[in-house]
Amino acid sequence: MEVLGGDALRYFLLREIPFGQDGGFSFDALVQRYNGDLANGYGNLVSRVVNMVHKYFGGVVPEAGEETDAEKALRESAVRTIAVYGPAFDELNFSEALKALWTLVAETDGYLTANAPWKKPAERSDADHAQLQARVLATAGEAIRVITALAYPILPESTARVWRQLGQGEISEVAKNKFLTDLAWGGLKAGTKFGEPAPLFPRAEKDAVERMQNIENENNKTVIEAAGGKSAAPAAATASPSVAPTAPSVGTDALAKGTLTPTTVGPVDAAAPVATTKVDAVPAALESARLSTTLAAAPAGAPLTPAAEGAAESHTITFDDFVKVDLRVAQILVAERIPKADKLLRLEVDLGYEKRQILAGIAQYYEPEKLIGRKIVIVANLAPRKMRGLESNGMLLAASLPTDGAPVLAGFLEEVPLGARLK
């Protein structure tokens, strides 16, 4: 709590562990959920919208104008979220309630990215672009108001700051009038003056886990000394920050009762991806589009790791370097060859929250028509690049066969929602 705050801990426990049941906790998992859902998700969304309203409209909410299909879809999604969130919350099913709410966060972020109010195409007039900016920012601002109201019981301190940034006053005062029971779309009025933008969830740096572990060790030492025992074992004080100590599982009922202590930690699969985007329908199982390739068998007795002499040089990166790469699940909607480009295929992929074009040098190894509907992994935050007069917005992930260097696209055996992030 001293490092990430009480809101982050409360959100993690209620999102990760079904209320009243046992579950796992680790500092690594807490930081990943904090950065993924709060810093990069909700916090980043609020920052983008509030800053753009200040930049383009002097901090005053503009008239949204007539809604298009995109605004209608987001409005209907928000209404559905309100309808689902209330009953789930009343039944103490906080995990499902928050999952539904963060789907709305992802959809709002996708809506903002798809309409890109910060980007004016050359063919769009200034007047048309101003109308788009007003419509998109007013709609996104209203979605944030709904998200903030629903998240208030879980994130009271953070949502209070957002509520003030949205020009809505003090959320605690509004909550006294049971506004959550009457929450509806359309509460953010044109002409509302936004407050000054301010950081909401600063991204946790790579030393956050180590800092929390050190605080944990000091707390344990203090408790032992207060009880008249010996100081904590040196091994505990020097525990690796990337491995959480093993202890009894945490139950979310402990959070409600106020009995949670810094030592209630247990193992958790911190590497599991966190799906915060909407789930799209998945087509029937597809036959692999991979052209036949025969793999050479490894020689008998071959070592599991390369010999030190002549082995490829290993380059390590930090965790902070890794999280900069945004790996997402996408589905191929269109695959076609590019004239006069023997190696390139033009793909259109669906990320759940947006569609984009990617050029891939796999034409020699994959038949385009057999790629349609296939789920793949892409680097979603790669800078755009032009090839053959076409812009590519992303990169596919593939393994390279040791025999001929042929690519094999990364995929999944299980059902995975579009847009889910790989961690």
Provide the fold topology.
Layout: H1 6-16, E1 22-23, H2 27-57, H3 69-90, H4 94-115, H5 126-151, H6 156-165, H7 171-175, H8 208-226, H9 234-237, E2 250-251, H10 252-257, H11 319-322, E3 327-338, E4 341-350, E5 355-360, E6 375-379, E7 385-387, E8 390-392, E9 395-396, E10 398-400, E11 407-409, E12 421-422
Antiparallel strand pairs: 1-2, 3-4, 3-6, 3-12, 4-5, 6-9, 7-8, 10-11
Helix pairs in contact: 2-4, 2-5, 3-4, 3-5, 4-5, 5-6
Word description of this protein:
- With 423 residues, the chain is of the alpha+beta class.
- Helices cover 38% and strands 13% of the residues.
- It has helices spanning 6-16, 27-57, 69-90, 94-115, 126-151, 156-165, 171-175, 208-226, 234-237, 252-257, 319-322, and strands at residues 22-23, 250-251, 327-338, 341-350, 355-360, 375-379, 385-387, 390-392, 395-396, 398-400, 407-409, 421-422.
- The strands form four sheets. Strands 3, 4, 5, 6, 9 and 12 form a six-stranded antiparallel sheet that branches. A two-stranded antiparallel ribbon has the order 1-2. It has a two-stranded antiparallel sheet with strand order 7-8.
- Strand 7 (385-387) and strand 8 form a beta hairpin.
- Helix 3 (69-90) packs antiparallel against helix 4 (94-115), helix 3 (69-90) packs parallel to helix 5 and helix 4 runs antiparallel to helix 5 (126-151).
- The longest helix is centred in the first third of the chain and has 31 residues, at 27-57.
- The radius of gyration is 25 Å and the shape is globular.
- The model is unreliable at 230-296 and 304-313 (pLDDT under 50).
